[in-house]
Fold these 3 entries.
Entry 1:
Amino acid sequence: MDTLTALQELIDVVAKLRSPNGGCPWDLAQTPETLTPYVIEEAYEVVDAIKSGDKNHVAEELGDLLLQVVLQAQIYSESGDFTLKEVAEGISQKLIRRHPHVFGDVSVQNVDEVKQNWEDIKAAEKGETVAETQKLSNKLFGYTRKLPPLMATMKMSKKAADVGFEWDDIDGVWEKYEEELGEFKQALAEETPERQQEELGDLLFTLLQLARWNNLDPSEALQGTNKRFIQRFQKMENFAERPLSEYSLVELEELWQQAKKELK
């Protein structure tokens, strides 16, 4: 089976799953909006597989991500918006337009010139000037639309620091963190859930600035903590002689400390 045949088989399978005549009830119930979490989840699983170095796992996870593309295109095609054909043609044409040094007669000397051509062409496509697309506020807004919150915050704050919007030293960052922590505590005690949410966001934003100042990756840090939590919980379940729900909080804490000690 060649590549195009394999891809067509996937398209046919997805179309069958979405068919009102004998299709899958779960697939038929899905919309582009309900599938959005799966797009994000599968993208993260691809990254995790790549990090693992397991090539077979990478291939499997890329397949799961490809399924989300084909499924989204199938749903939109059912309402006459576009098909997978338009999706593929669109990205091919974009790549050709933005690589005139490969598909045209433009000459480039280095990667920086490639990037500059890309930005120039991108601006022209949007009917904007390069100056408009290069506005910092536009870039910051783009990060919030394209990236997970932790990554977006780190990108935004780095870009702001590059133009001088930065503390003089890390002591200033710690002072801001303490200030935001106090405001969060006050909001929890006295204010509305909306204000509490705002203050939580401010506190998290400042905490990430501390990570940035110390060249730490908050996404990697949190991922590591999640993995350690799961490992310790697995140990607790191994130590337990009955379901964890039957243990008191004191007993659970003892199991937790025993798990931590063994994993060290």
Entry 2:
Amino acid sequence: MLVYPSGLDLSSPHLRFLTARLRERRRAIGSRWRRLSAGRQALLTLAHLRNGHPYAQLAAGFGIGTTTAYRYITEAVDVLAALAPSLAEVVQSASTKAFVLLDGTLLPTDRIAADRPFYSGKHKKHGMNVQVLADPAGRLLWASPALPGAIHDVRAAREHGIIDTLADAGIKRWADKGYRGAGGTVRTPCWGRWETLSTGQQAVNRSHAKIRALVEPAIATLKTWRLLRKLRCSTTRITHLVQAVLTLHLTGSN
């Protein structure tokens, strides 16, 4: 396999943050010697998450075995995932905002056609449903654990407790038609075909669409981590990957 130098479009605070967390982890478990330093392990993990490179390619580039690369990356991802903010913590910080934006996105996977629970009829592909909360400026605040793609957005929001938690905090949420009937403080557009809506309802829907569209940058931010654009791992690991990416994003934006 040929090896070549490559760049990573991340800032040094990402590397310093993860390196420090890995050093703490090594001290906690009493790890003495490893093939890679904490800094190199952090760089390996960031390259995997940001660029989506497979373990074999990364292993060749870092001069380690594929199994070792997998083990190092899994350890670092678990460390990051444990630091991701909970929904309650996000709601507390969002209580000062006028409203939040709620939307769902599908993270495509390489599931086969027989895996019906992971097939999204809306997106016509297999994947995992992740709910996203953003502030009024479109900045990513929180991403939920991943559920099978066949689950509709409103059901996913309920299962994660998003509807009740934000309602209890009195925080208004703007969402699309996929959340119709959610209740609480969720604001959705007027239901019906455009031509059957009154002039006032059409105006409301246009205004609603402009506000709700602000969530798109938050979803795009999540998917700048290229690994999430086409997941080839076990579905049981996807929640950890999403939480790890969320931790790194919030670290870099602070």
Entry 3:
Amino acid sequence: MIKKLNITNSIITFGSPLLIIILMIAITKSKLFVLNPEALSIGVTADLLFTVPFIYFLLIRKKNVPKITVLSLFILGVVITTFIIPKENQLFLDQIKTWFLPFLEIGVFTFVLFKVRKVLKSYRHSKKEGSDFFSTLKVTCKELLPERIAILLLMEIAVFYYGFISWKKTKLGSNEFSYHKNSGTISILMALIVIIAIETYVLHILLGRWNIIAAWIVSGLSIYSGIQIFGFLKSMFKRPFSIEKNTIYLRYGILSEATIDINNIKSVEISSKPIEFNDTNRKLSPLGELESHNIVIHVKKENPIIGLYGVKRKFKTLAFCIDKKEEFKAQLDKKISLSE
């Protein structure tokens, strides 16, 4: 009964705005629109840009749906209106694009900055078990935006934060372990940054002889890629592995992470032997076999590993490299024996 009610509520919540959108499109294709295009263009534009988002807001205001999704409907309305209203009747739409959209963009940007600042304050004042800046930010972004958009925003903010804001040296607790000192990933990422820098310079000169705009576009994309890699690299210094009460948190910077329940661990071994990697045998590092390993964890039930941009994969055997492998295994073995 509850399930049926939830389905009905979802149909009403998302179906009502969709029905109005379909109705507005139908109006622009009707004979009535042909007879009075100017007045109806204003009406259709107003309904798609303001009425639909407002009705949607009324429908979700008491539901666990991010309120910022109202903005998505507004943007969708702008796109649809641009295509269905004749260009000669888009004066009202052009005025909204010119005067309203810039203020909306500034408002959204300010709102996001405010939330990020709030996240930073919250993280500094109250550290919960297993939480860090990235995990706290992830929860906040998912509360604000639809999942896919939230993941993109999360990565952009995290890259900027770890790359250019977080410079303070991370002090490890007795239950925390670094992995960057013996990691081949650091060397590979540093090499990539150097290669990108050289290629950007050479390509900019070569493309500049042909088209200066194209040269700057390619250079901009290359610089952006370099910034991303730099953020990935620095995050590996800031997100150590940790063993908490009943959980281990394996955070490979912001490149990948796995959270494993102590009770789900079958065995832990110190090993650098080659492993046949497949759908259940994986490496924590996204570089796969390019990265060496010295610890292998076997789990009883399949466990997820979350990669870049929220990509999830399952594993039953996970291999990774850690700086103090003996100490890590000793602490983990002690936790496992206590849980049995």
